[in-house]
Design goal:
five-stranded antiparallel sheet; three-stranded antiparallel sheet; 8 strands; Alpha-Beta Plaits; alpha+beta
Length: 624
C-alpha cells in the first residue's frame, strides 16, 4: 500500500537554522521538497564529491589482495579521504600525460626507424660548416623523375619510399623530411622510461586499492553534508524583521504515521509547523508499506527505479506474484532452477546471522518457480532426448505441457505447444482482469463501469484469440459468437464511461472527440493479450540454445582428448544461456508487469521514492 503523506511547513529561528536542521536530520522522517538552490559551500561540496567519485572510479579496477599494510584495518590509522583522493587524482593526471607521451614516442619512432639511428644534431653541425644535408622521403616515382642536375645522395629505399639527402633544396613540390629532435636510441630509452614509470604508477594504484573503502566512507560523508547544505540553502528567510526575531522556514512531506514524532520534536525545539493534506499538484514522494511477501519485489523495483505515483495504485504484491510465474516460464529449466536454488540457499546461510538480504529471498522464490516449471515440463539442462532422463523425472512431469508427451508424436508435440500458448493467454486474461478490478476498487465511481467493460473486452478477446490462434479445435466452439457479443458490450460500456467525471453527457462527448483512440483501444486489447505469447516463445528459444550447446559438446565428451573442451563448452554455453535468460526476464517479464498490466491498472509509474532527510553514514564512517 502507499502510505498517506502530509505536507508540512516548518518555521525556525534563523539564528538556530543549522542546529534545527541537525535535529531534523536526526529525526529522519521528513522528505524535504526539492528546490533549485545554490551557495558557495554547495559548489565546494559538489566539487569534492565529483573528485572523490572520480578517484573511486579509477581504483575500482584494482582488486584488494589480502590485508595490505596500507589498509586502515592493519595499520590502525584511518587515512584522510581527501588526501587519498588527491594522491589518486595526481597519479591519474600523471598517467594520462605519460600515456600521451608514450603514444607520441611510439609514432615518432615509427616515423624515423627507416632512417636508422643517428644524432639529428649532426645535421645542424654540418650545416654550420657549410655542408647542408637536407633529408627527403620520396615516393619511387618522384625520385625517378628527379633531374640529373639534382645533387642527391641515396641512403636506402623500399617499396614505399626512397630515403635520401640533398645538398640543396630539390626543385618541384617535394617537401623535405622533418628530422627528429632526438635519435632513435634516445627515443627508445625515453619510451622505456615512460613504460617504467607507468608500471610504477600501476603499482601505486594497486597500493591504494585497500583504501577504496576509505574513499567510499568519505563519499557518504560528503553526500550527507550535501543534503544538509542543500536543505540549509533552500530555507526561505523572512526579511525586514530584527536579527534576533528573523525566522526561516522549509517545506516537505512526512508520512502521516510519523506526524507525532515531528510534533514532539517541534515542542522540544520550539519549532512552529503546519501540516495539511497535499494538493493534487504537489510533488508528493511515494512511500510503500507492504507485507513481507510483497516487499520481496523491492530489490527489483529499486534496481529498475520504478515507483508508482502518490495518487496511483501499489501493485507490489501482484507484480511479485506474476513475476515469479513469468520468471519460471522464461527460464523454463529445472536444472537452471536447481542452480539458482543452490546459490540462494548458500547466500541465505552465509548471511543468516547478520540478516538475510531481501534479494536472496527473492532469488529463492524465483529459483523455486523455475524448478517447478522445469519439473512440470520435464526440462533438465536442455536435454533434447527426454528418453535419456531417469524414469522418475519423466513420470513427475505434467502430461499437458510435458516434453515427454511432445516426444511421442508430431501431433502430441503440436498439442503440447498449443496448451502452452493457451496457458499464456489465460495468464493474460487473469492478470489484465485483476488490473481492472484494482482500478474499480480504487475508483469507486460510475467510471468503474468502464473497467467492467474493459474486463468484458479482455474476456471476449481472449476467446476470439483462442479461436483464431491457439488451435483449430477452438474454431468451432459455441462461445465464439457470444464472445463477440461480450466484447461488443464491453466496448459500449467503456465508450460511455471511460471519461466519466460526474457528468454522463460530457463523458460521451469526450469519447466522441477521441473516437480514433477509442477504436485503437480494440487493437490494444488484442496486442496486450497476444503479448503474453512471449513467455512461451522466449522460453522455447532458451531451451533451443541449451539443446544446441548439448548437441555440440556431446560428441566431445566421448573422447579423452576432447573431454576438457567439451566440459568448457558446456559450462560456457549454459552460462551464456543463463545470462541471456536473465536479460530476457528483465526485458519481457518486467515489461508485462510495467506496461501491459500497469496500463490496464491505470498505473504510469510517475512517482519518485520517499527519501527522508536523515543521516546515512555507517558506523565505520562515524568512528573514522
Amino acid at each position: 500500500m502507499i502510505v498517506p503523506m502530509k505536507k508540512i511547513s516548518l518555521v525556525v529561528m534563523d539564528k538556530s537554522r543549522e542546529a534545527s536542521l541537525e535535529e531534523l536530520r536526526n529525526l529522519g522522517v521528513v522528505h524535504l521538497e526539492k528546490r533549485n538552490v545554490s551557495s558557495a559551500r554547495l559548489s565546494f561540496l559538489l566539487e569534492r564529491k565529483s573528485r572523490a567519485e572520480t578517484a573511486l572510479g579509477i581504483l575500482q579496477s584494482y582488486a584488494v589482495k589480502g590485508a595490505s599494510s596500507g589498509s586502515p584495518e592493519k595499520s590502525g590509522v584511518s587515512p584522510d579521504p581527501e588526501e587519498v583522493v588527491e594522491k589518486v587524482l595526481v597519479l591519474s593526471e600523471e598517467k594520462k600525460s605519460l600515456q600521451e607521451q608514450a603514444a607520441w614516442n611510439s609514432r615518432e619512432r615509427s616515423r624515423i626507424e627507416k632512417w636508422g639511428d643517428f644524432d639529428p644534431r649532426l645535421l645542424a653541425e654540418l650545416a654550420e660548416q657549410g655542408i647542408p644535408l637536407i633529408p627527403y622521403e620520396l615516393s619511387p616515382k618522384v625520385y625517378e623523375s628527379l633531374g640529373k642536375d639534382e645533387r642527391v645522395i641515396l641512403l636506402g629505399k623500399d617499396k614505399a619510399a626512397v630515403y635520401c639527402v640533398a645538398l640543396e633544396p630539390l626543385s618541384g613540390e617535394a617537401a623535405p623530411w622533418l628530422p627528429p629532435e632526438k635519435s632513435l636510441s634516445a627515443l627508445a630509452q625515453e619510451g622505456a622510461d615512460i613504460q617504467g614509470r607507468l608500471a610504477e604508477i600501476e603499482a601505486e594504484f594497486r597500493g591504494f586499492a585497500p583504501q577504496k573503502e576509505v574513499i567510499a566512507r568519505g563519499l557518504e560523508t560528503l553526500t550527507s553534508n550535501l543534503e544538509f547544505e542543500t536543505a540549509r540553502a533552500g530555507m526561505d528567510l523572512l526579511e525586514g524583521a530584527p536579527a534576533e526575531l528573523t525566522v526561516s522556514w522549509i517545506t516537505g512531506f512526512i508520512p502521516q504515521e510519523d506526524l507525532g514524532l515531528l510534533k514532539r520534536a517541534a515542542a522540544e525545539n520550539s519549532w512552529a509547523f503546519v501540516a495539511a493534506d497535499p494538493g493534487p499538484d504537489d510533488p508528493v514522494p511515494t512511500k510503500l508499506k507492504n507485507n513481507k511477501f510483497a516487499s520481496l519485489i523491492y530489490p527489483l523495483t529499486d534496481f529498475l527505479e520504478v515507483v508508482p505515483g502518490y495518487h496511483e495504485i501499489d501493485i507490489s504484491g501482484w507484480f511479485l506474484f506474476f513475476f515469479i510465474i513469468f520468471f519460471g516460464m522464461i527460464f523454463g529449466d529445472a536444472g537452471y532452477g536447481a542452480l539458482l536454488l543452490l546459490g540462494s540457499l548458500i547466500g541465505i546461510i552465509k548471511t543468516a546471522k547478520k540478516g538475510v538480504p531481501p534479494a536472496f529471498k527473492l532469488f529463492l522464490l524465483l529459483g523455486i518457480s523455475n524448478f517447478v516449471w522445469g519439473v512440470l515440463t520435464c526440462s533438465w539442462f536442455g536435454v533434447g532426448d527426454v528418453s535419456a532422463l531417469p524414469a522418475l523425472l519423466r513420470s513427475i512431469s505434467l502430461p499437458l505441457i510435458s516434453n515427454v508427451t511432445a516426444a511421442q508424436s508430431p501431433r502430441d508435440s503440436s498439442i503440447v505447444q498449443q496448451n502452452l500458448m493457451i496457458f499464456c493467454f489465460t495468464l493474460a486474461l487473469l492478470q489484465l482482469s485483476i488490473g481492472h478490478i484494482l482500478a474499480i476498487i480504487k475508483g469507486k465511481t460510475l467510471k468503474a463501469l468502464a473497467d467492467i467493460g474493459s474486463i468484458a473486452m479482455v474476456a471476449g478477446m481472449y476467446c476470439i484469440v483462442l479461436a483464431l490462434i491457439a488451435s483449430n479445435e477452438y474454431r468451432s466452439i459455441p462461445l465464439l459468437m457470444p464472445a463477440v457479443y461480450l466484447f461488443g458490450g464491453g466496448f459500449l460500456l467503456n465508450f460511455l464511461f471511460a471519461n466519466y467525471e460526474g457528468n454522463f453527457g460530457r463523458s460521451v462527448l469526450e469519447s466522441l472527440k477521441n473516437i480514433i483512440s477509442v477504436i485503437l483501444g480494440i487493437a490494444n486489447v488484442f496486442s496486450d493479450i497476444m503479448s503474453y505469447i512471449r513467455l512461451w516463445a522466449v522460453g522455447l528459444a532458451g531451451a533451443a540454445i541449451a539443446s544446441t550447446v548439448n548437441a555440440m559438446a556431446g560428441p566431445m565428451l566421448g573422447h579423452f582428448i576432447l573431454f576438457v573442451f567439451g566440459v568448457v563448452l558446456l559450462v560456457f554455453g549454459h552460462g551464456l544461456n543463463l545470462v541471456l535468460n536473465v536479460l530476457s526476464v528483465l526485458v519481457h517479464g518486467v515489461r508485462l508487469n510495467t506496461l501491459e498490466f500497469s496500463g490496464h491498472v491505470g498505473l504510469t509509474w510517475s512517482g519518485y521514492a520517499y527519501r527522508p532527510f536523515a543521516k546515512r553514514i555507517n558506523k565505520e564512517a562515524q568512528s573514522g
